[in-house]
Amino acid sequence: MYPFLESIRLEHQKLHFMPLHEARFVRTQKDNWGRVIYTDLQKLIQQSPGFPGDNTGANPGDNPGDNPNDNAKVHHKYKCRVVYSQTDISIQFIPYTPKVILQLKTVTQDPIDYHYKSTNRKVFEILTKGLASDTEILIFKNGLLTDSSFSNLALYDGNTWWTPKSPLLSGVHRRHLLDNHTLKEVDITMADLPSFQKIKLINAMMDWEDTWQLPITAIEGILK
Q1: How confident is the model over 188-211, as pLDDT tens digits?
Q2: Which domains are present in the chain?
Q3: What's this model's pTM, rounded to 2 decimal places?
C-alpha cells in the first residue's frame, strides 16, 4: 500500500483549512488501518524541524545553515507535504509557486479510484504524459466530469458556481466552498460544458479569488 498524503497551505505562518485536513487525516487512518496512529496534525507540523518561524525564515535560536529547509524560508507560501504510513510520517515544507495553466483537455478514464489522497499518482502521470506544460486535463468517469489531475473543479453558468457532484477526491477547499455556499453540486456531462462560461481549478493551496480561472473556450474543442 502506498503512503497517504496531506498537502497543506502554509502562508505567513498560518496553516489553512486545518479542521478539514485533520478530519480527513483521521478518517483516512480509520478507514484503511482500523485505528488512528497519528493525531493533532497541526501540532505535528508546527513541531516539525524546518517549520518556518517567521516571515524572514528564522526560527528562534536557529543559525543559518542549520536546517536543510533554510533556503526555502525566504518564501511566504509553502506546501506542507505530510506523507504517512502505519510505520512512519514525514513532513516537508516546499516553497509554492502555482503552475501556469492556459489550456484544458478532456480525457475519459472509467477505471480510476483516488478516494483517498495518496502518493500513488501513476494514473495521473499516464493521463498527463506528453501534454504541454501549460495544459491540464479534465477527467470524465462514467460519463461525468470529476476533477483535474491535481484539483477539484468549479464551473460558472452566469448565475451560479457549480462543482461536479462526484469528484475523484473530496478536497478540503471544495468542502469549505460548499459549506459556505459559494459552490453547489451538480452532475456535469461532456455535452453540458458549452453551457458554462468559466471554469476554475481549486485546491488547498490557492484562495478562491486567486485560483486558476479560464474561459470555458480554453477547453479543447469547446466553441461558444
Answers
A1: 999 999 999 999 999 999 999 999
A2: 4-95 (3.30.470.10), 103-218 (3.20.10.10)
A3: 0.87
